[in-house]
Amino acid sequence: MNTEINKTLAVLESGGIILYPTDTIWGIGCDATNAAAVRKIYEAKERDDAKSLIILLAEAKDVFRYVANPHPDIVSMIFAFERPTTVIYEQAIGLPDNLVNQDGSIAIRVTRDPFCKSLIKRLKRPLVSTSANISGAPSPASFATIDPVLKGRVDYIVDHRRGEEAAAPPSRILRIQADGSTTVIRD
Length: 187
Fold this sequence. Notes:
- The protein has a 9-stranded mixed beta sheet with strand order 7-1-2-6-3-5-4-8-9.
- The protein has helices spanning 2-13, 35-45, 63-66, 74-79, 114-123, 148-151; strands at residues 18-21, 26-29, 54-57, 85-89, 106-110, 127-131, 156-157, 172-176, 182-186.
- The relative contact order is 0.25.
- The protein is built from 6 helices and 9 strands.
- It is α/β, with parallel strands linked by helices.
- It is globular and about 45 Å long.
- It has a single domain, classed as DHBP synthase (Alpha-Beta Complex), CATH 3.90.870.10.
- Helices cover 25% and strands 21% of the residues.
- The longest helix has 12 residues, at 2-13.
- Its main location: cytoplasm.
- It is found in: Cytoplasm.
């Protein structure tokens, strides 16, 4: 796995975009702090840049680096999640404008996947994670079902977990306000 992380890291650090397995479905990703790389993802997916993307973090405490005013107990709230959960937070900070939603919010998931966690820690920055599909097409159930056109638009395809056939469900999505109130967007 270390060799694969090194190869993937080199692509991310050079501003490239990757196709990679996450704790949910296969995703397209890049260094979330690189606006040019984020633009490449919108182009590869043929996605309107008004539709924001999510980012993955390795540790719950890192939410405080990218959200201006999260709930003070957000770390323990994240630890309590029993399955992959993406949280929409108000007041994103430290991220490119083309990654942040027009209302200033950002969607963040703290990954439990060992490969993603290691990659993010080595990169020392969050990863963009958006489903590996052309905008409007269904999300792929496995690596084998990813559109070959999309595979040709990324700079690197991670050679890890490609053979898995079991479809993982996408993450649950919650909106958590600074006061701790929660709204379920997708369960």
